[in-house]
Structure prediction request, 66 residues.
Amino acid sequence: DVVQSRLDMVTDVFNRLVSSCHNKCVASRYAEPDLNKGESVCVDRCVAKFFEVNKKVGERMQAAGA
Prediction:
């Protein structure tokens, strides 16, 4: 089913994004319940870079397939 396939793909991208940015930006030992300013800025940058890279990869794959 196409809808289920797309949902699986979106879920996979989201899970990879969360895992990657969490590992890069959030200390493994939580000292406080909320993100501190440094962690928050790191997560914002990480998410932006993740989507920019995915966009570029998609464009290149589309160009290669055309």
The two ends are 25 Å apart (CA to CA). The chain has a mean pLDDT of 93. DSSP finds two helices and no strands in the chain. The CA atoms of residues 35 and 54 lie 25 Å apart.
